[in-house]
Design brief:
The structure holds 2 protein chains of 2 kinds. Helices cover 10% and strands 41% of the residues of chain A. Chain A is mostly beta strands. Chain A has one domain (47-172): Immunoglobulin-like. In chain A, strands 2, 3, 5, 8 and 9 form a 5-stranded antiparallel beta sheet that branches. A 4-stranded antiparallel beta sheet of chain A has the order 6-7-4-10, with no helix packed on it. A two-stranded antiparallel sheet of chain A has the order 11-12. Chain A is rod-shaped and about 135 Å long. By secondary structure, chain B is an alpha+beta fold. Chain B has 2 domains: 2-42; 55-221, no CATH class. Chain B has helices at residues 2-8, 11-42, 213-221; strands at 55-59, 62-64, 87-95, 101-112, 127-131, 137-139, 148-153, 167-172, 179-183, 189-192, 198-209. Chain B has a 5-stranded antiparallel beta sheet with strand order 2-1-3-8-5, with no helix packed on it. A 4-stranded antiparallel beta sheet of chain B has the order 6-7-4-11. Chain B has a two-stranded antiparallel sheet with strand order 9-10. The radius of gyration of chain B is 28 Å and the shape is elongated. The two termini of chain B are 49 Å apart. Classes of the chains: A mainly beta, B alpha+beta. Strand 11 of chain A pairs parallel with strand 9 (179-183) of chain B, so a sheet runs across the interface.
């Protein structure tokens, strides 16, 4: 019994000895703060074309829908049978490579000014009942310069510069 | 093991161990008392003052904290974010405690879907943050990743003082608005991947005491910068 008590007391003494070797724990003054924020981006683009015909002249305007969330740039081109002549033009429109570019970004619920397409039938061509004058148009999202002004799209590259996401990587569309 | 048990069960060994414990523990106590005596004699007329340490994140000069606190006025008069425009956004740090401190910031940038879930596969580099170095801030390249930028402010901030801005602008790269997926062969459906998503920026600010700064930084931040 006495031996057991000595054993326990010795163990206790060993624990106390070990306590003397414990390094002091230092606490330091620290502080922290956290904040976050998120901003959604949206570029819904929905455009429609309006056409009116006055004898041999077709007037075209492009409408940026009110549900769009971005300004858009638009371009259009007209075509008819090779035996016909087309005279195209309008205020704010300029031609480059067969396309007619509207010079201002169109806001949501806004329209371009009319693009007039006048059909001329040469005298040597037999008149027919119906002559088809086709119009195609395209629109792209308007981007901005760092200062907030509109970035004018390049006629060659920016109209075909989507990035096709394929298997997790993005590559420029040729 | 039995020999050890027999050895420490001897009363003489028990007494010796207790004596040793008393000497060691007593010695450490005397050391502390001696240190306290030294401090007391140097600052005989000193007063006891409670010190506090605190730090604030300043957005355009105003303290902000918490979820959704940033970017409430980022767009200004714009109804929606203009892709490519550089928006002014000044972020800095202020010492709001009563003692000087060293500070660092960790800035996280990522995309979130419509449900508020993080989308790690979307390109965080298209969130272009205008970090400002040279005004006392240094980017820790070793700790930074594509999604996280860690900056340290070189000088200690005195109580009430503010740092120079560590960020001054936010721009979304137009590639975010050009990235699409397309499905179908004869009828192609184009989906704009980033449409409806949100870019998110998260800022963590840490402060640590300047007294015994090397050890304090190492203990609190794991690095001594």
């Amino acid at each position: 019994m006495k031996t057991k008590r000595s054993f326990i007391l010795s163990l206790l003494a060993l624990v106390l000895i070990l306590c003397a070797f414990i390094q002091p724990a230092w606490a330091y003054f620290t502080s922290s703060k956290q904040a976050d924020g998120a901003v959604p981006i949206s570029f819904i683009r929905r455009t429609t074309i309006k056409e009116t015909v006055d004898e041999l002249t077709k007037n075209v305007t492009i409408h940026n829908d009110e549900t769009s969330t971005v300004y858009v740039w638009v371009r259009a081109r007209a075509y008819a049978g090779v035996q016909f002549n087309l005279y195209v033009g309008g205020e704010g429109w300029t031609e480059d490579g067969g396309w007619w570019y509207y010079g201002a970004a169109v806001p949501p619920n806004g329209d371009t000014k009319p693009l007039s397409i006048r059909l001329e039938i040469p005298e040597e061509v037999e008149p027919t009942d119906v002559v088809n004058v086709g119009v195609i148009y395209e629109s792209i999202t308007a981007f901005y310069n760092a200062d907030g002004s509109f970035k004018t799209p390049n006629h060659d590259s920016d109209w075909r510069a989507e990035y096709i996401l394929d298997s997790g990587s993005s590559t420029p569309n040729p | 093991m039995k020999k050890f048990r027999d050895l420490i069960s001897r009363p003489s060994v028990t007494v010796a161990l207790f004596a040793l414990a008393l000497v060691l523990l007593g010695g450490s106590t005397v050391g502390g008392a001696r240190a306290a005596l030294t401090v007391e004699s140097q600052y005989y007329n000193s007063q006891v003052q409670t010190s506090s340490i605190d730090v604030a994140l300043l957005e355009n000069g105003a303290a902000v904290s918490g979820e959704g606190a940033l970017f409430s006025k980022l767009l200004g008069e714009d109804s929606s974010l203009k892709i490519g425009k550089k928006y002014d956004e000044s972020l800095a740090v202020q010492n709001t405690g009563s003692i000087s401190e060293y500070v660092r910031v960790s800035v996280y940038q990522y995309w979130m879907d419509e449900q508020g879930n993080k989308v790690p596969e979307m390109d965080s580099q298209w969130i272009k943050l205008g970090f400002v170095t040279g005004g006392g801030w240094t980017i820790d390249e070793d700790s930074s990743t594509e999604e996280r930028t860690v900056l340290y402010y070189a000088d200690p901030l005195d109580s009430g003082a503010s740092s120079s801005p560590f960020l001054n602008s936010v721009t979304i790269d137009e590639r975010a608005a050009r990235t699409v997926t397309q499905t179908g062969e004869t009828e192609i459906t184009t989906t704009y991947v980033y449409n409806g998503k949100s870019f998110c920026v998260e800022v963590h600010v840490d402060g640590v005491q300047t007294h015994n700064a090397d050890q304090a930084k190492l203990s609190a931040w794991g690095v001594n910068k």
